[in-house]
User: Fold these one by one.
Assistant:
Number 1:
Amino acid sequence: MWQTFARTGITHLMSISGLHITMFAGLAYALINWLWRRSAKLPLRLPAQHAAAAGGFLAAFLYCLLAGFAVPAQRTLYMLGVVAAARLWGREVAASRVLLLALLLVLLLDSWAVLAAGFWLSFGAVALLFHIGSGRLGPAHWLIEWGRAQWAVTLGMLPALLALFQQFSLVSPLANAVAIPVVSLVITPLVLAGALPFLDPLLLLAHLLTTWLMAFIDWLAGLPLAMWQQAAPPPWAVLLALAGGVWLLLPRGFPARWLGLLAFLPLLTVVPPRPAPGEAEVTVLDVGQGLAIHVQTATHDLLFDAGPAFSADADSGNRIIAPYLRAMGVRRLDLLVISHADKDHEGGAASVLAALPVTILKSSLPFEHVLSAQPVPQEPCHDGDGWNWDGVRFAMLHPGAEPLSRKTNDVSCVLRVTAGGRSLLLTSDIEAVSETALLERHSAGLRSAAMTVPHHGSRTSSTPEFIAAVAARDVIFPVGYRNHYGHPKQDVVARYVQSGARMHRTDFDGAVAVGLGSGGIVFRHEREERRRYWHARPIELDR
């Protein structure tokens, strides 16, 4: 289990649980070895070292089961197993082979472990420790060795952390310096001892020390510049930085080790390209049954809706949207639009507001909605509102001045984005009565090259008159895979097929990116660009 302080954003760089498992196995080994030697008959049947090695491995296995058997715990268990087997067979095995055999076992049992961040962080950290421990002239003072290990893991894991999380804690070395010895040498032994009969007060002491430790970690996280955050680096920059880190961590005597630092420059300086002035990049994110759309111009960013909430502590905002924006290098949202008060559209809004600054929040939410209390300037969506960003025109077309009904869907914000003479209509969850009102107010101004299908393809929307007025050549269905609403409805799909529109669906295509500009309108599908071998081919659609 990777020690992650989620409340503070500090990600621990050392696999503490691996150390705990090893400590527990070592204690079991020592106890069994001591007891076994006290017997007159047992050592004649099996040497005490062999019995202790088997017992220590069994203890580590039970600890791993209690810890959840995650990849880092598996790595530790298999490494201990290799060492135990070598002891039983009376053979010596190099540390690098122990790690490689553990890697082989993990992949044989679960080939998809390579998709877990813990796989790369755990094996990478241990490999770095073996790397700096090899080729040294002799043992140094334990404090120097410990500092060298911290330096190696901090520097060597930087490319992986930026590639996986796009952020790195600048105070993590100090956090590690305190947390690792306190947790490993004090708190964990107290907890293990407190599990024994009549030693319950030790658990209270462990809890008190943990509270003090977390207070210290929270204080570190609150320091200015505690976190480095950036866009996701390109793969070539990550590989170059990894090679530079290995070169920089070579033993003294190797020439020009400082050149390894230069290999880190692309990792920290290369940023994703943004649209040119007069162009826009619109991405309909795959958030399941809900809606979240990122609109980016040359210097501005807009988020239209924030997807659904999944549970009390998990939603599209913290699980999908915020990581996506961070990977894109977005540090601030110039505008957040929450179209209406439905959980599949505003469920992740609070997490987005907590993750990054927002200049303005536009919505059609009622005054008593919980988001109204957010400390951000707020404005209502209304027909006639419009603005220009970097040569891209934004026009709010709905809701109008008069309420159409008491349903939240009928006050959904409708936004039209125009760049290079081509428009994309974002319709949210408007229903038939709203479509009729739009036809009355903007009969000649609805025509667009593309649009998101109203209300995820529900039968309450997409009237033939509205489809004909928009006359979109491409339509996007933001729907969840096998959603329980049955969206999009087949008769609604048939209407768009009859209109001649090409269809794009987030449940089949993943995120749908739309490029608007003078060069035309270009569609890209995440699943096509990053297809995996386990992806089932989507049902063929008329495109």
Number 2:
Amino acid sequence: MKSLVLAEKPSVARDIARVLNCHKNISGAVEGDHYIVTWALGHLVTLADPEEYDKKYKEWDMSCLPMIPKKWELVVIRQTTKQYHNVKVQLFRKDVDQIIIATDAGREGELVARWILEKSGCRKPIKRLWISSVTDKAIREGFAHLKDGRMYNPLYHAAKSRAEADWLVGINATRALTCKYNAQLSCGRVQTPTLAIIARREDEIRSFQPKDYYGLTCNAGGVTWTWQHKTSGRLYSFQKDDIENIRNSLKNQKLTITEIAKSAKKTFSPGLYDLTELQRDANQRFGFSAKETLNIMQRLYENHKVLTYPRTDSRYIGTDIVPTIKERLKACNIGPYRQFIPELLKNPLRTSKAFVDDKKVSDHHAIIPTEEYVQPEHMTNDERKIYDLVVRRFISVLYPAFEYEQTTLKASAANEMFTAKGKVIKAVGWKAVYSAAASGSESSTEKDSGYHFESDSEDGQTDQSLPTFKQSAFLSISHISITSGKTKAPARFTEATLLSAMENPIKYMESTDTKARKTLGETGGLGTVATRADIIEKLFNSFLIEKKDRNILLTSKGRQLLSLVPEDLKKPELTARWEMKLSDIAKGSHKDSEFMKEIRSYTQTLVEEIKSADGTFRHDNLTNTKCPRCGKRMLLVKGKNARLLVCQDRECGYRETISRTSNARCPNCHKKMELIKKGNEETFVCSCGHKEKLSAFKARREKEGAGVTKKDVQRYLKNQKEEPLNNAFAAALSGIKLDS
């Protein structure tokens, strides 16, 4: 008899098949002597649309709401029907006596497999492969320690409950809003609170009133001293007159040193990556969207097999991983990492609770390199960037702390207090890993590398070189200067900062309920590491938010939607309550039937609230362009990287792109240009005023030699390396004698 292995994606299935010695290709699977390996294509099966339950639901009618199925129906996703039937054939083979679930080890991965088994009606015994990387070694070890599939029943119930609850609340609330206000309005228990967080930041920016503030510095003894308020400790004052009076009182005065404090300090590595932290860094450093980073990570995990499972919310590894660290270091001991890794391999590794803690590892440990030897030449430039982030973090936690001596001087003059700070670096430690050349200076470890970390100085004072002073020394004052500035409004969200807000939305909660705030912190915030990128993309695609440079802005549609959505659906507390109960279901301490009973009741309340509301929705982006399909006026909307015309009739659904942000750079200011389409003609337009037809742009680029791609250059250089040294041209040159 044989075991059928069900993987989530074809690439993972091929790796498993190779390790299990399955080489015979059959329809939608690979067969061997003891195993058959087949695959899903992500989800093959999903919850049925409303019209599958009753034909009347095909029409969006308020009188039909809420839609609450008595029995949930599963349907095969139309685009993947062929593969579903391939899998089903293998499931019911007479020579298959057990199923091994090898989908991604997590809540959604469990749902992918279980829904296929449920839809097909397969009741054969189940085993579970639970691994965090898809290297040959991990696969072999995973198959040597297969789990009983029944252990993961609670995880499946949690996943199923989450999907059904989102269907009930999301579809009913979206239909109710759309029918009530005759506009395409979508909402959900994660996307709507996220939108509310963006709106709150916009309100803070709009209501912000900048204030002038003033400070004072002076030079004495070759050091720049900063005035500090005696009681508050602030380095500035909002009263200009007070600062001017202090300046006048310092004339012809001497500074008396009142305190010299030296302290040894150390800072440790920022720690290993989980997905959200990696998405945040990738956005800040490279401008990658959360979705782009996740897609790159998936390729590094599935195709290159050089990084572990990406959809993790843990920043720790377990003690079981520690014995494999040296092997992982050897695998990535290439190029820029050779100056750091050999030193680690020579000596016993230093591990600590800062990154090794079994109690803080959730379903998966932190993102780290695998034992697979890396081949950077097979990666894209973007893949190398993400790989570099992960490897440097991995190496840095194994390095000692960054150590320095902090000197703080305090002095007085004219009954006022002044301070100065200096830092002497004692050991570069982990910061060397982020240095282009580990010279030992802080500038080389931070500025040159492009990696930035929080300043060790918390009060905003600049560290400087300090001479040796004695207590009570008198110093002559010179160069007294008043500094000034304006308080700044909070910054608009970028994808990096929005991810942070979704992960930790406590400060955006209106509730002062300590238990609710604690729950939200414990359950990981809004969404999960696996879904946050999709939520942000959905907000862009629904035209509820738009992007200007890297900043995220709320659209008029988004602001109006928030005024129409029931209050409870805008609050992060709702997600906190859900996630806590789903977590309990996954642990087996809460019944999924009780949770779903609450959700059905909540859905009815939500729909009634929308029905009885008295709000209005107005399209303020109507154009005079008529829809070519239905003749109604179209809406001008701004997507993430494009401007589109969209029919106002949601049932028509016609849309066309009229311009998009390209990667082409303006020849004058070098900014990215917009490609605008009018009829059959396309024109590049830059914000600086430059315009250029697409045909003229291509001709110019060809003349500049832009037709040569990076691949062409690499191929040429490779051919040069392979060219024999004793070719005919070299032989001819060898006979020439040059006078010295």
Number 3:
Amino acid sequence: MASKTPRPIRHAFASTLKSFKTSSGKTGQFYSLPALARQCPHIRRLPVSIRIVLESVLRNCDGRKVTAEHVRELAHWAPNAERKDEIPFVVSRVVLQDFTGVPLLADLAAMRSTAARLGKNPKKIEPLVPVDLVVDHSIMVDHYGKKNSLDLNMKLEFQRNRERYEFMKWGMQAFDTFGVVPPGFGIVHQVNLEYLARGVHKRKDGVYFPDTLVGTDSHTTMINGIGVVGWGVGGIEAEAAMLGQPVYFLTPDVVGFELKGRLREGCTATDLVLTVTERLRQHKVVGKFVEFFGEGTASLSVPDRATIGNMAPEYGATMGFFPVDERTLEYFQGTGRTKAEIEAFEAWFRAQKLFGVPRAGDIDYSQVITLDLGEVSPSVAGPKRPQDRIELGQLSARFAELFSQPMSDNGFNRPAAELHRRLEVTRDNDPDADERAPELEPLPMGAARSVVEMVANKPTLESALSEADVVEPVSAKRYTLGNGDVLIAAITSCTNTSNPSVMLAAGLLAKKAVQAGLTVQPHIKTSLAPGSRIVTEYLSQTGLLPYL
């Protein structure tokens, strides 16, 4: 399993191995799609995402896992053909999040133990492609609303996960191709976008190839915002990819999504992605690639593109792909990639004739959907059903409608008479206050009645009862709870935290709210989980973090 250079491709495609030159005069080799197009001119009309997959099939054609017939089948992809052939897609790397990544690391450890028992060198057991495990799913918000909340939550996190973290650290030290991003650095998708993605990779024999991947989280698709072909898979598929095996998937339809115009002032990427999700859900894109093109696409920043790509699981597509262009290069420059990396990245895509956002008519898509960005309006949606978008001005009326509708229509199935019913609650140091609260007025079924911390979340009963884990006492205060009230106020989604414009807008709104004298009720659980350290940095530098 030690890493080695793949066998040369079969003679039928040997002529596609070409050279390219960077702007600094450095040269590299690549398997040329334009050269392959001399045998199959139709390649020039293929969607960009299909051509990137085709490059992998071409480069890894060894006559065994990937055959010449696989190359020919994909090179002759037709927009509306019957989908019956599987593509053997060999990815450049694998990304794991902690919960699904630990079992894969355990399998590698078991393989090394077996090798040692057989008298073999266990060091020969290595992932064949680079693997990065990002620890981001293990923290829970036990403490909130206090200056030391983060410190207390992090201490609890390390208490709960100590054994897992020790195992991950062993894996990072034991394997050359296995890296771990420790807790506290950010969300896996954003770390992947800002740091792990390299644009292009280089083999030992000097051949360059594009960054492609699979990840063990459905929202791996955020990486599509910088022109990387990748999506979320299960543990078995990820483990196969780690061991150098192809990821097999059915040849997909590719839906072209044309964006026109520009967003209006006051509309955010979140408003745009909710509109895109609603539109794509209507067109049933499950199992398909969605590829964005047109003048509106070219106008979007990379964080806005990543926000749309991130929501691919919500609109049902395998990917929400954006081609590489000048904005992608600007993002790489702004996130610390080296000059040599960026030059090789640009030169490779230009040599493959894949640089730039396609215009209408350039590509043959299975279907084309069009959206004028000027039509997007400020919207809200629930976390579980983002396709049920509600325009901001209609929120109050729409909530009243949904309150009495059946659950099958995404309603709450409650009598209209209960809509304005409220419960008066007393929060003080009286341990029986919560028991007496229902006597004030009966609660409607399903409404929250307790504001006590969840003891079950604590690692031990001792820690649950310790003084450090008790919410700071609040002087006796009466307030009311009713249907539609906010009980949890959280910015934790990678959809939002990857986008500076959305985060800064939230900070500016928080600043105006604080300056206007608004405060947070003590029963509302608040949390802010920046997607990466750079988010904390720009919120701090702009002076907005204290208001949030």
Number 4:
Amino acid sequence: MISQREAGLARLRARTFDVLVIGGGIVGAGIARDAAMRGLSVALVEQGDFASGTSSKTSKLIHGGLRYLEHGRLRLVFESLRERSALRAIAPGLVHPLSLLLPVYAGDRRPVWKIRAGLWLYDLLAVGRNIRPHDLLSARRAVSREPGLRLDGLRAGGLFADCQMDDARMCLANILQAVSLGAACANYVRVRALLKTDHRVCGGAVEDLLTGRTFDVQARIVVNAAGPWADAIRQMSVAGTPARLAPTKGIHLVLPRLARQALLVQGRADARMLFILPWGDYSLVGTTEGPVRGPLEALAAGAEEVGYLLDGVNRVLPGLHLDADDVIATFAGARPLLAFAGAATSASRGHAVNVDPWGLVSVMGGKFTTYRRMAQDAVDLLVTRLRVQADRCLTDQVSLLETVGEASPALWQELTRAVDPEVLARLLVRYGIGALHVLRLIDREPSLAQPVCPHHDYLEAELAHAITRELACTVTDVLARRTRIAWSSCQGLDALSTVTGLFQRYAGTAGAPPELQAEAYRRFLARGFAFRGGPARAPAAVA
């Protein structure tokens, strides 16, 4: 049986497309979805897995960017808050409200009056799209919401709402909907060179990294949505073209659950704001901002960066006494910031859509929250350059739920009758209508209804679904991006034999041998613990 990926590769070779998108992060995925919705024929290639670069290394927030207000970036905050509202509407299972508490201490760089003014302005810029009004709490009320807060010097607490999301699955949802609309999307396909004819770029010479096969993808127009790698693609088009990006590195820590309340904390040593966020049964702490050293695809948390974040947590939650041994996992990514003569944070999230002399369209900069708007701007330009009649952009109105065709009430009743209601509710939140595919797997093989391991609520059917329906090609794709299993106490090591077994059953000869899959996954985990020094080793499996 031919896999979805193999079918996509065959389509990439078989025709000339209106648009070739280079990059399967959130911006490229959003462009593919938007262009396909407007009736364009779309191809997309990604050198790794979808969202494996920057788009799965975020703070998992859809937010306006409260801290940008002090830099005068009112337009950016307004646009981000508008996009927050749109994403809540089209992806409620992936984007949900989150209350954040910003404790203010004596000596903080942003005193109470400044926090109060910022929160009022934040509400004002939401202009009717606010989740709920902010509140300025007394020190006593702030501690009642989060009892672990340091009391010494606590003056007040600003309480406001933004949204939390699953970044990797948000990206995947865009890819899957683009595919359902006719786009040909393939991961692990790298562009080796741009094709040119008649003084214009007309496609890419690509390599399938899983098989080593090379072929050409022909297109009327090529879009560079490669995130931090965008300058490298621009160099393929015009050698020696000046860099437009100044990427910065940011890291995050996964820790045991630290607090019951999401916190936004002012750094004492610098002006950065740190997030301490609930993330399932764990806490996510981030982020740092520093220079990128070494290959973009091999970034890892350093000891100094980990220490910086732990110090920030211990300062505001002093009863925890955290150290490096408490870290469950880390991840690091590069922000594709536009080069700017000034502080990185003041340049941080603006975006640009440029066309070079060969017609290569490059979409650069931006932030996850505004990806849909970035995609709209890019596709508006594509429609103009292609001189085609196309539908208007509807990506802010059409649900991101996977399109699966007609499903009769009788079929739903038949497939759900043997599934626990709590399990069914969880599947519907994660997959929307796509839960039907998971239920069909369980109906055919009831043994797939059992959890992957005792430390997770993920079912074996969900992992099989990732392999058969969600373009997962490796164990790491499944455990780190299709699910959150890699970011938990057992790191997925207790489930490793189960996952490799599922690959053998459902991927057949398309996947790498189980022992190579397992070794590659262990190397992926080990990179997250390189900060501890010595040989990089992933933690032992939980007994």
